[in-house]
Design goal:
Elements (H helix, E strand, L loop, with lengths): L3 H4 L3 E10 L6 E9 L2 E7 L1 H14 L18 H21 L6 H6 L2 H4 L1 H22 L2 E5 H11 L6 H6 L6 H9 L2 E5 L30 E2 L8 E5 L6 E3 L9 E5 L7 H4 L15 H7 L5 H7 L6 E3 L20 E3 L19 E3 L20 E3 L19 E3 L12 H4 L6 E3 L11 H7 L9 E2 L2 E2 L2 H22 L1
Parallel strand pairs: 4-5, 5-7, 6-8, 7-9, 9-10, 10-11, 11-12, 12-13, 13-14, 14-15, 15-16
Antiparallel strand pairs: 1-2, 2-3, 16-17
Helix pairs in contact: 6-7, 6-9, 14-15
Length: 486
């Protein structure tokens, strides 16, 4: 990212061309700004140049005659436009030489430095938080920052001293306003660009440059040291692997949401700042920690542990498995992995507090003895998978809510495996082949026998007629079972 304060000797401005709009014949001059390896385009009319020059003359000691004069006749001739392009380019280059160490705000805004340069972008944020920070925090202690803004905050903290302009301007542009706001945030949302919904379901947006620049959001690495009191961290269309240091948040963060990215493993989130994320993750349960201390792994485990993480939501990514990194969050209660590519459920045995598991929209076709790894589940969502057999759910004795909608269940006998769960209250089977059969609802409710009236099937209690039919069918089932026993 650009930082004119540090890279003014590597900065340049040119006007390579001018463009005429198709309607109205308005001439825009395309300004190319380069700071180090960062480039961006700015389009301005001559009228914009004139207004900018008047304001700059008022604020600084430059001569008003630096700007080429306005011409009323023949100002659309190609030869004149080319001459003016050259003159305006020289004008901007002279300003950059004159203000070679630090740009005045007027010039910085005219050339869009406040959109792409660390110092000037943060001055805009500082002004916003100075004037509206309290209102933003009182309304909702959650705020959306772009990857560029988070990167700027991270980089600004590493600057050895504040730029001279910051000392002069002080007040509303002071970086301390940004730090104060960030330190009070409870929830942070990070997106490739700010206040835009166009990236919400587009994995490729992270490779799209920001605005008219060559800055790619997913190439911006940053730390989150300025956000010391966060309880919730949410990333959308941006990988958490952009984070190079999240150590300060591990003891306190309660919720992590990462949506609509190309991540394929959970360790890209939970071990985002660990260079050895692909290694096997040992258990960090107390009894395992005691034994691991003897082989030198204890410190590593404590460093990587998410001590208060209760909710992990990784909806809409490209996950193919539940890897061992989930062991670093032993207090996890809610695990949401919807709309991924998971085929097998594993590595959940060491999450004793897990109460909600949502795996809808995956590729799961088998559920074999899940009670051995997730015996304390209260809510299980397996909608939109490929399940046909439910025997693996038969011993999830604490299950209250079960969603099996839009699977491939076609045999009514499969319902028996979940009908015997003592605490089950809600069951969703809509969207399965079974749900299109004759008398589907009373036939399913009959499998619950005397509990049929307590059940919510597909979000509805049985009608009196359905329950009456279910009662008859239940009696017939019990009679058949008794005959089979004899």
């Amino acid at each position: 990212m650009a930082c004119y304060y540090r890279q003014h000797e590597e900065s340049a401005v040119t006007i390579p061309k001018y463009n005429e709009t198709s309607s109205g014949g308005v001439i825009f001059y395309a300004i190319l700004v380069r700071v180090g390896k960062v480039e961006w385009m700015v389009e301005r009319r001559y009228r914009d140049f004139s207004q900018f020059n008047d304001k700059l003359v008022e604020e600084t000691s430059i001569s008003k005659k630096l700007l080429p004069p306005k011409k009323l006749v023949g100002n659309r001739q190609p030869a004149f436009l080319e001459q003016r392009r050259e003159q305006l380019e020289t004008y901007l280059q002279e300003l950059l030489v004159y203000f070679r160490n630090e740009l005045p705000r007027t010039l910085a805004e005219f050339l869009d430095f406040n959109k792409y340069d660390i110092i000037y972008l943060l001055q805009d944020l500082a002004q916003l938080f100075h004037e509206h920070g309290d209102a933003l925090l009182s309304a909702k202690k959650e705020y959306n920052l772009s990857a560029l803004e988070v990167f700027a905050i991270s980089e600004r903290l590493s600057l050895p001293c504040p730029p001279p302009t910051s000392l002069v301007l002080g007040g509303k542009f002071d970086f301390s306003h940004v730090l104060d706001f960030c330190s009070q945030l409870v929830a942070l949302v990070v997106t490739p660009v700010k206040d835009s919904s166009c990236f919400a379901h587009d994995y490729n947006t992270v490779d799209v440059p920001i605005g008219l620049s060559n800055i790619i959001p997913n190439r911006l690495s940053f730390n989150l040291n300025a956000f010391r009191n966060l309880k919730a961290l949410k990333f959308s269309a941006l990988s958490t692997e952009n984070i190079v240091d999240i150590e300060l948040l591990k003891p306190t963060l309660k919720t992590i949401c990462v949506h609509n990215t190309t991540i394929t493993h959970i360790n890209q989130v939970l071990l985002c700042d660990n260079l050895h994320k692909d290694c096997e993750v040992p258990s960090i349960l107390p009894e395992a920690l005691a034994s691991s201390s003897s082989n030198g792994n204890c410190n590593l485990l404590k460093t990587d542990a998410w001590l208060e993480l209760h909710e992990l939501d990784l909806t809409g990514n490209l996950l193919t498995q539940i890897d061992g990194s989930v062991r670093t969050a032993p207090k996890l209660r809610h695990l949401v992995l919807e709309q991924n590519r998971i085929r097998m459920v594993q590595n959940l045995a060491e999450l004793p507090h897990l109460q909600l598991l949502s795996l809808s929209g995956n590729l799961i076709s088998d559920c074999i003895d899940w009670h051995l790894t997730m015996g304390n589940l209260v809510t299980l969502n397996l909608a939109q998978n490929k399940l046909k057999n439910l025997s693996g759910l038969r011993k999830l004795l604490s299950l209250v809510n079960l969603d099996l909608s839009s699977n491939q269940i076609d045999n009514l006998d499969e319902v028996d495996y979940v009908a015997n769960l003592p605490l089950l209250e809600t069951l969703r089977l809509t969207g399965n082949p079974l749900a299109s059969s004759v008398d589907y609802r009373p036939r399913v409710l009959a499998r619950f026998h005397e509990r049929a009236g307590e059940m919510f099937l597909d979000n509805e209690r049985g009608t009196q007629q359905e329950l009456d039919t279910a009662l008859v069918l239940s009696a017939l089932l019990q009679s058949q079972q008794q005959k089979q026993l004899k």
